[in-house]
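The instructor's notes for this session suggest beginning with a concrete chain rather than abstract definitions. Hand out the sequence below and ask the class to guess, before any prediction is shown, which regions might be ordered.
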Amino acid sequence: MRLFISLLGIVLLLKVAKPMPRQSNSALENFFDQRPKVEAIISCFLGRTRCTQQQDYIRTRAIATMRNFGRCPDNLCTPQERMEMEQSMLLLQSKHPDLFVRLVASILNVNIDNIQTG
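After discussion, reveal the predicted structure:
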């Protein structure tokens, strides 16, 4: 039952995420086009691999952004970082939805690796 409620929370979180106007940031888009790099940073975010200093800096802001319903808190992000973090979350969700769900699930303390379907 707890798993069901957690998964329902993930679905609701995904449904209420507001689409933002897309502003082109080719560096971010190029990064998210490279699945191995995205997998590496998500692995760091999930605590499966050790984070580099830069990954840890990003991880802190990414997790705070997700916990704050898609907006990086003022005490962590400059306006530019906030825009980049919001765009990064949108790119992650659109280009790698499976990794996005893993990240959201981890924030909700739900281990989806052991979920069996069918």
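Then share the key points. The mean pLDDT is 80. The radius of gyration is 14 Å.
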